[in-house]
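Re: export button greyed out
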Amino acid sequence: MKQLLILSGKGGTGKTTIASSFIELSKAKAFADCDVEAPNLHLVMNTNTKTSTPYYGMGKAIIDQSKCIKCGLCKESCRFGAIDFSDKYEINLFKCEGCSVCEFVCPENAIEMASYKDGETTIYRDNYIFSTAELNMGSGNSGKLVMKVKENLKDNLTDEPLAIIDGSPGIGCPVIASLSGVDMVLIVTEPSVSGMSDMIRIIKTAEHFRVKIAVCINKYDTNISQKQKIEKYLIDRKIELIGKIVYDKNISKILNEGKTAVSVDSEASRSIKNIYSRAIEILNS
Ligand code: SF4
Ligand code: SF4
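Workaround output, generated via the alternate export path:
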């Protein structure tokens, strides 16, 4: 199975618009949403039958107050500042990274690591498999949860030739988890300073994974000089720009109706179709 990953860096660039369009165009029977902090691909895919499973990531520290002698060693040792003290020592679960150092230093064995629900994974089944997940607010395990989303996709498939993966936003650990094991990444960028900066950082990361890389520019007509800078950068780096999409204010309206951008005919949807064709050619080359 070949895996095509779609990334964008900052949110709102059009990553999910492209991913949902590609799924419709390819009739892919395998796809995933790795944006575990704010998954939204299911909103445009009209998905029905689903199975959700709690996801337990790393443990979090718990203090047994009946054993605590208030020596303060745990608070001094926690480099994440996750232990608060007012009249007693308490773990701040939003800050606790589950490193176990406090458990190790506590002279009274008053601290234990307990499993903690970080979110849940979901598999939608129809005549396709769609794997996704949602991280609980404040949980810091998004990279591991992304790996779980991809693992669930693979484990539930038989012989699908193509999987389309809506990657995680940003440029951190979840993006690296999204990149692992894919054959090609399509970076959706926009003509802004931050869009270009994110694109460059993703390219540099993707090069480490030795995956095929292509770029498309969404809303290219909103900043022509910045678009030209992106084009020049890509030429210099010998990375193919496989298409440009005009700004189309109707796209968000179409998505809000639960449809994909390619479900209507427009200049933007025709560009997305061309980008899809070229992406598949590169993926299979
Ligand atoms: S190290 Fe143990 S005994 Fe000391 S304050 Fe922390 S929990 Fe209490
Ligand atoms: S497990 Fe680590 S991060 Fe959590 S409270 Fe203990 S020392 Fe701090």
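Residues 60-115 form a domain with the Alpha-Beta Plaits fold (CATH 3.30.70.20). The button fix ships in the next patch.
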